[in-house]
TrEMBL record:
<feature type="signal peptide">
    <location>
        <begin position="1"/>
        <end position="17"/>
    </location>
</feature>
<dbReference type="InterPro" id="IPR018378">
    <property type="entry name" value="C-type_lectin_CS"/>
</dbReference>
<dbReference type="Pfam" id="PF00059">
    <property type="entry name" value="Lectin_C"/>
</dbReference>
<dbReference type="InterPro" id="IPR001304">
    <property type="entry name" value="C-type_lectin-like"/>
</dbReference>
<keyword id="KW-0732">Signal</keyword>
<feature type="domain" description="C-type lectin">
    <location>
        <begin position="27"/>
        <end position="144"/>
    </location>
</feature>
<protein>
    <recommendedName>
        <fullName>C-type lectin domain-containing protein</fullName>
    </recommendedName>
</protein>
<dbReference type="InterPro" id="IPR050111">
    <property type="entry name" value="C-type_lectin/snaclec_domain"/>
</dbReference>
<dbReference type="InterPro" id="IPR016186">
    <property type="entry name" value="C-type_lectin-like/link_sf"/>
</dbReference>
<keyword id="KW-1015">Disulfide bond</keyword>
<dbReference type="InterPro" id="IPR016187">
    <property type="entry name" value="CTDL_fold"/>
</dbReference>
Amino acid sequence: MKLLVLVLGSLIAWVSAQAVQKWQKSEDGSLYYIENERKFTWFGSWNECARKNMSLVAIDSYKKHMQVDSLLRKLYGTGPGLWIGGNDNDLTDRYEWYATGEIFTLTYWGPAQPKRGVNHCILIWEDFKWHDWPCTNKLGFVCEENRFLKQKSQEVEALKKELDDKTIAPTKFRNFIMNINPTFDHVVLSGNESVLVPNDGSVPIK
């Protein structure tokens, strides 16, 4: 009977985990993608995030920690085991965030962590604390919006608004776009529309 209860409990927990929506927003509107299936190495997780124009989350501030922690606690009874964007690059003296190259300035390690040795990559474990594990172990992961793309997108929207309000010259918007992506030869402005013209002869992008 006890075995049946344990099996049913595990099944319910598994079904509950599968039902969790992968795309999530924190209270401040930050977008995250949470994959809870344990089938990705750390580097595989990084690639999965990159395919979505995202990166493994870098918890480099107290605010970010509170966002991610509260989000995961709301979704899961216990931490499902998720890779985040920190590793030590095979060094033994420091951990850093892969997306920014910044060395850890604050940490939320679990008991007796980090263990180091062959453990080079960081995850959020069942206690919602950080643990280091071998990067080849398979877990889920947490992605966040690519910081560079998010920042530039916000700047583009601000410039477009200024352009719509006729408070900036069209050349300023054109130069800004070309600085972001030099693969575009020029920007053609038609009315309030901007058209990116790739230098490979492909179709312009509005």
